[in-house]
Amino acid sequence: MPVIEMLSKTGEPQRIGKLELTPMNQVLKIQFPGDHGGLIWNRPKAVVVRSDDGQEQILPVTDVTRVAIWAMLAGGILGAIIMGLTFRRRQPETEE
């Protein structure tokens, strides 16, 4: 059994009017050694829309929460760099 596994899964198709909607998601599984548990992350990827006349369209899903988390992480790193550069102490110059 792999320790880290990336999968694409599809959900149950839902019929709404003349359309059939099928959700798709991406799964990241991390299994700890010794079968003592693990972590699973699911994130939305797309929705497949099928009409009665056979047309199929894939609509990508933007995971707004993931975008917000990455933006907060980038802001925190940028803030730490700016604070470090602003408040770093200058070493006194030594006279020779």
Explained architecture:
With 96 residues, the chain is an alpha+beta fold. The mean pLDDT is 89. It has one domain (4-87). The protein is 25% helix and 44% strand. The protein starts with a strand and ends in a 9-residue tail after the last helix. Strands 1, 2, 3, 4 and 5 form a five-stranded antiparallel sheet that branches. It is elongated, with a radius of gyration of 24 Å. The chain has one helix and five strands.
Put simply, the count of helices is 1
Task: Kindly report how far apart the N and C termini lie.
Answer: 65 Å
- Secondary structural class: alpha+beta
Output the radius of gyration.
Answer: 24 Å
Would you count the extended β strands for me? 5
Low-confidence stretches: none
How would you briefly describe this protein structure?
The protein has 96 residues and is an alpha+beta fold.
